[in-house]
Amino acid sequence: MILRTEGIVIERREWSEASQLLTLFTATHGRLHAIAKGARRPKSRHGGGVDLLDRVQALFYPRPGGLNLLAETSVLPGFRGLRARLDRLLAGLGVAEALRDGTRDEEPAPEVYALAAETLGRLGESDRPGVELAAFESRFLAAVGLAPRLDACASCGGEAPEGEPVGFSADSGGVVCRACAAESGAALRTLRPAARALLRSLAAGTPAARVRPDAASLRQARAALTDLLRTLGERPSRPGDRFARWIEQSPARG
Prior knowledge:
Layout: E1 3-15, E2 19-26, E3 30-36, E4 55-61, E5 68-75, H1 86-102, H2 110-123, H3 129-143, E6 166-169, E7 174-176, H4 178-184, E8 189-191, H5 193-203, H6 215-230, H7 244-249
Parallel strand pairs: 3-5
Antiparallel strand pairs: 1-2, 1-4, 2-3, 4-5, 6-7, 6-8
Helix pairs in contact: 1-2, 1-3, 2-3, 3-6, 5-6
């Protein structure tokens, strides 16, 4: 049985002179790991190979629990301008990283796919890609059930005073009051009022184009969001490690 899906390339590893190992985040099948044999040959059914952040139409043979076989891929229009500026590209790679580390294999999440595709499309035209990335991360965390608590202490539910810096704990899931911060004994991030307000605005769904944070507040907000993303699971020690066991079991390269 052969299946068709649309996806975004979120991880790529060259395998032999002609083939590629790919991770796609797809509209209908969630995260998929696949091999595109002979992808980099000019006359292959993969158009000479695909790149990170390409949006593709893919035909594949499913192998549940294993490495899917890509029969054909074609790059679709979209995400123009993403590679025109380094800051846009880096933000796009941040989207790919969240999808790679924060989703599960073969678990459909069409709303997350739509969010990622919309964000990458906007990044291609954005003059403030860092804000676009923060908006994506906030909505992504909400979609996977990890939206930070910002109105009260995430540990005890008590008051976390407004108008002054507060601690932020990814392990607790949001801001923490002074008592809980002292009791934990851990080194916590500090959120200025403006950074907390930015996180609250993003959580409310305010479009990135309407958000005008100062640089320090954006850095603090993004650091807090990144900490939360890291709680979704351990990251691979190096790109492509997830493919290792399949490579060992695969026939000769080609």
